Amino acid sequence: MSEGIKVAKRGTARILAPLVIAAGLIAAVHSASTSAASASPTAAARLTAAARLSDPGRLAAPGRSAEAAPTAKAVYFHTLPPSAKLPTGAHCAKLVDATPLPENKAANKPYNRGTGQHVGRKFFPTTPGSDNPLAQKRLAPRINGDFAGTTIDILRWAACKWGIDQDIVFAQAAVESWWQQDTLGDWGNDAAACPLGHKLGADGKPGLCPQSYGVLQNRYPYEHGGWPGLIKSTAMNADAAYAIWRACFDGYETWLNTVPRGSQYHKGDAWGCVGRWFAGRWRTPAALGYIARVKQYLREKIWLTPNFQQG
């Protein structure tokens, strides 16, 4: 990011397209139906995962078998207040690894094994009229993409590390990429806006290159020092995206009050900062349309639906 942070991270014409870590009670797994009992091990694992995610606070009924009631506590990551002391990535990795969930996006496996990198001293812009320098001082050094696991566990890790409700993360990543790290977006014909290895025409569209990459669609050339890790690593992509969300949530993006906006920017508005990711503006119509789409997927828990699962 640079002065360009003030412009929308996406084209505005495209309108739609927690530490409070609460250790939940032992996750319930609903009794398997006759058809589920005969399902493949992979399908059974997904059934278990869905039950753990959708009903983390329910106790397993006494007498249920070990197969039907996991003994590990389900961990749900909630949003932490502005300026809260955030857990380390290593601590979050331990919490996530204690209750791992199965992969539902097989194509992400190469990207999920690769961890990221530390970012530069200009990840958050510090020039007058841009981000509060505290964003670069307090948040940027935490970004490293240092986690490997399944796609859902990477998203859980990022939610934990940056103190944002995990279901918001799940829903937003579904809107952005359907949880697919190889997603390319925001195609343009400006050669200067193409990252190394992705020159015009290199990705299958003559005269164009994608400017947005990965599970959260991070956009080049913003997020200085994060490339090429943002393309190669799912964890790096999510780590950087939610560092930016946290900068907004903590009140470091006061420049949002110097550009067109729907209302006054202020810290502590989780959903306003979700919309800012898409529109680069504060609660404008484009931002509000995007927020509505993410909320829809959250209500539906789209990541648990059959059509969302992939090999």
Describe the structure.
By secondary structure, the chain is mainly alpha-helical. It has a domain at 3-17 and 103-148 and 170-308. The protein is 35% helix and 7% strand. The protein has 11 helices and 5 strands, in the order βααβαααααβββαααα. The chain has helices at 34-37, 41-54, 89-98, 109-113, 133-139, 151-162, 166-177, 229-232, 234-249, 270-279, 285-300; strands at residues 21-26, 73-77, 184-188, 209-213, 218-219. The strands form 2 sheets. The chain has a 3-stranded antiparallel beta sheet. Helix 6 (151-162) runs parallel beside helix 9 and helix 9 packs across helix 10. The longest helix has 16 residues, at 234-249. It is globular, with a radius of gyration of 20 Å. The two termini are 36 Å apart. Residues 1-48 and 55-69 have low confidence and may be disordered.
Strand residue content: 5-15%
Biggest sheet architecture = 3 strands, antiparallel
User: What distance separates the N and C termini?
Assistant: 36 Å
Class computed from helices, strands and strand pairing: mainly alpha
Taken in chain order, the helices and strands follow as EHHEHHHHHEEEHHHH
Mean pLDDT: 83
Shape: globular
Number-wise, the strands total 5
DSSP summary: helix tally: 11
Rounded to the nearest angstrom, the radius of gyration is 20 Å
Q: Which percent range fits the helix content?
A: 25-40%
Major sheet: arrangement of strands: 3-4-5
Low-confidence stretches: 1-48, 55-69
Oligomer: single chain
